[in-house]
Every structure is written in structure tokens, then in C-alpha cells.
Amino acid sequence: MLASTGFCGRELYAIDDRENQLYLVGSMGCVTPMALGLALSRPDLTVVALDGDGAALMRMGVFATLGAYGPSNLIHLLLDNGAHESTGGQATVSRGIDFASVASACGYALALDGNDIGVIDCLFDAKDVNGARFARLSIRTGTPGDLPRPKVTPEDVRARLQQHIGGR
């Protein structure tokens, strides 16, 4: 799993830091192109891009690239809280964007939208999908007050992921 910069990565780290996870630091909007590269180069792996609404809005053009080239092993999960929470909670314009329709129009093979965590199950349970899968999950703002920052350096995160996937 590759997590976008900010609280997406920090929360994933806090839940359970693993060798198969990558936390992008200072690379807002770059998780999906990186996930696409990994998914294309390693079709034997399921690659999950955990994205935030602010980051997705920053790089809307990547939806077209993922729709055109995204393989079946690529899953794009967008957590939408309507805010740039990691930088002070400034509002985004995400509430006016139908991300699932954008993903579908850009060629994603599956595009879901929901405000219930069950949408994640639907995303992962979808079978016989020929292309990239997408789901937007509406979430509330707010993070735990004691949310840790990853103690592993970005270079070490890259190295351990590379070792985990076989150094290819």
C-alpha cells in the first residue's frame, strides 16, 4: 500500500507499520503515479494507492492516465474529508466534485462512491474487473491528537519496500 503525504500516511503508519507500505513525504498528489508504475512493473502484486481529496484535486490529470493505463492490479482509494487537514484544515472543493464519475469518464474499470466503510469491501471484492479500480469514501475531518510521525526515514521506507517486493 502506498499512502499519500500527510495524515493518510501518518494514520496508516500508526495503525500498523509494515514492510509493504510506502509513506510519501512532501509529495502531495504523487501517490497515484507512483502506484501506477509499481502496478505496471509488478502485475503479480495488488497495488493500493491511498489518496486524500486535496492531493487528488492537485493532480486531477492523473485520473486520465490511470484510466488509460491502469491495470487490474491497481486499486485507488480516495479518502475525502473536504479539507487539507495535514496543513491546517483548509477546505477543499471536493464536496462539489463527483470523483467516481470523473474516474469512470477517465476509463477506470470500476468507480464507486460512498459514505459507508462498506464501499472499501466492494472495491476489494470486485472480481473480473479489467482495469484500475477506484472508490471515494466520504469521511469526517479530525485525527487523533497523538498521531505519530513515521520514525522510519523515507529512504528506509523505500529500501524496505524494494526488498519486500523482491528488489525489482
Structure description:
This protein has a single domain, classed as Rossmann fold (3-Layer(aba) Sandwich), CATH 3.40.50.970. It is 36% helix and 19% strand. The protein is built from seven helices and eight strands, in the order βαβαβααβββαβαβα. Helix 6 (118-125) links the parallel strand 7 (110-114) and strand 8. Helix 2 (31-41) packs parallel to helix 4. The mean pLDDT is 91. The chain has helices at 7-16, 31-41, 53-58, 62-69, 99-105, 118-125, 154-164, and strands spanning 2-3, 22-23, 47-52, 74-80, 83-84, 90-91, 110-114, 133-138. The radius of gyration is 15 Å and the shape is globular. The strands form two sheets. Strands 2-1-3-4-8-7 form a six-stranded parallel beta sheet, with helices on both faces. Strands 5-6 form a two-stranded antiparallel sheet. With 168 residues, it is α/β, with parallel strands linked by helices.
